[in-house]
Amino acid sequence: MRDVLLVAIREIRQITATKGFWIMLMALPVAIAVSGFASSAFAPEDSTAYTVVDETGTIGEGITERLALRDRQQELRDLAEYAERYDLQAIDPQAPWADRQAWLSEAEVRRFAEAGGAEAAVERIAPDLPAGVPPFELEDPSYVAVPLPDGVALTAANGEMGSALQAAFENDIAVDGRTLPYGAVLYIPQNFGEPGAAARVYTNGRSNQTLIQAFRDGLDGALRDRMFAAQGIAPATAQAIEGMAAPLAVIDPPPGSGRTEVMTRSLVPLALVYLLLITAVTTGSMMLQGVVEERSNKLFESVLACIRPDALMQGKLLGLGAVGIVIVLVWAGTGLAGAMYFEGFAAEVVKPSLAALDDPLLIAAMIFYFFAGYIVLAMLFLAIGAVSESMQDAQSYLTPAILLVMIPVMILMQAAIGSPNSPVVQVLSWVPLYTPFAMLARLATGVATWEILGTIALMVAFIWIELKLLGRIFRASLLNDGKPTLKRIASWVRSPGRQS
Question: Where are the membrane-spanning stretches (predicted)?
Fold first, then answer.
């Protein structure tokens, strides 16, 4: 055991002494730090500024109110899901946000808005918020009404976009201390509704379909009101008709469950698949290069005078495993720290994904499959290094080996994401070389316990067999002169004591 540890320490020192190791180790933390800072500091605004120029004086206010009501509706939906997720309905059972379906009712949305919207609701919830429950994050409104910029006129002949308005669209606009993109201008002429008199929407050229649809809905409503008035229908009756909506209940799984839960729970296992591939290939390549250099420099002859070939092999595997664990811990720790510190999509996805991993068997299986896959690939690289006289020889073995692993795994990942229980994924789950990848991809979808235990037993047996075969190849290749050929390698594998 002492010899194995000495070789492992030497291997660790040899790998960590290279510049390539430190560049590889720090590449991901630096990339996460730069991208996280950039996304926080330079993230585009979610809100868009718009202007309604209403020469009739009766339509524009309704359109602005309609857009504000859409924001309140989304706020109410998000707040109701938040309240249900953390069992907060009892704080104020009569509040609109205490009902998951309230956002479907325009009357409830208006009641929510009249009560102060999400800001007032958050203030109401805050004193009774249980320990450990994160506060509700208020979102900025999607659309913000602003006055028409100075120097811009919309009465040009033929309705063409003037140069002043075009220049305004090319630049952002200052609104309450924020800088927002200027999205669209709605111009409603005085004679709107008469034959040939059309409202005009000027846009910045980007997709603002929700905004344009809100303009259209408001204009349609104005035309209907005029028609009702022309038919002698009272305004209150007309408003009641327009407000009619079919009763509808949308039944979703509780927040965090259903398909959303599967995708959330799958994030960490899928990330481990890619992390396994990257770390195994990079650290394995380092070890392969070291073994080949030691063979070509005849360094092994001196080492074997003091240590057994099996101890040398085991020490190299142990050292490589330790280096791989350091890389995994640094990369995974940096990723988690970045997700927790920086706001944005990654944080919103990673946090619930970690919270969803609450099954001890699932966590233990993830750890086992990751390290089992790492050991399997590490022994593959070590075997290639043992039978290679030079890096040129190693490349002839390395390229097919990498393709043998990478191509099926990529196909497997695509299949696992789309259909985790498809036949190809289930079959590859029992092929030892691909078992770690397939099982990691499937774990969050609900794999039977017997299948988890069965594949774990399969991997233990396969690693033991691979270790024995690698020991034969390593021992024979180091103790025999001459170029290792496929025939000689096959003979070493068949007979542990045979030398040729």
Answer: 21-43, 267-288, 317-342, 362-385, 397-417, 437-465
Q: Is the pTM above the cut of 0.70?
A: no
Q: What is the pLDDT of residues 235-258, one digit of tens each?
A: 667 666 666 656 555 555 554 444
The larger pLDDT score, comparing residue 201 to residue 362, is at: 201
Percent of the chain with pLDDT over 90: 2
CA–CA distance, 325 with 8 (Å, rounded to integer): 13
What tokens appear for 43 in the block? 């993230």
Q: Which residue type occupies 206? A: R
Q: Is the pLDDT of residue 199 over 60?
A: yes
**Cβ proximity of 385 and 375 under 8 Å:** no
**The token pair that represents 47 in the structure block:** 């809100």
Q: What is the dihedral of CA 493, 494, 499, 500, to 10 degrees?
A: -90
Rounded to whole angstroms, how far apart are CA atoms 109 and 106? 5
Q: How many whole angstroms separate alpha carbon 273 and alpha carbon 15?
A: 24
Calpha distance 226→62 (Å, rounded):
14
How far apart (Å, rounded) are the C-alpha atoms in residues 484 and 473? 10
Say if residue 112 is exposed, middle or buried (CB neighbours under 10 Å; 0-12, 13-18, 19+). buried
pLDDT at residue 460, rounded to an integer:
92
Instruction: Tell the burial category of 163 from Cβ atoms under 10 Å away from its Cβ (0-12, 13-18, 19+).
Output: exposed
Token pair for 95: 């509040």
Pairwise CA distance, residues 383 & 477, whole Å: 10
Contact 47, 140 (CB under 8 A): yes
Domain ranges of the chain: 2-37+258-494, 46-242
The span from the CA of 454 to the CA of 457, in Å, is 5
Nearest in space to 314 (alpha carbons), one of 466, 461, 460, 498: 466
Q: How far apart, in whole angstroms, are the C-alpha atoms of residue 251 and residue 231?
A: 40
Q: Which residues contact 377 (CB under 8 A, 6 or more apart)?
A: 276, 280, 281, 284, 405
Q: How many CA atoms lie within 13 A of 103 on its CB side?
A: 18
Span between the terminal Cα atoms of the chain, in Å? 29
Q: What is the mean pLDDT of residues 130-142?
A: 82
Cβ-contact 346, 436 below 8 angstroms: no
Helix, strand, or coil here: 49? strand
**To the nearest whole number, what is the mean pLDDT of the chain?**
76
What is the SS3 assignment for 459? Answer: helix
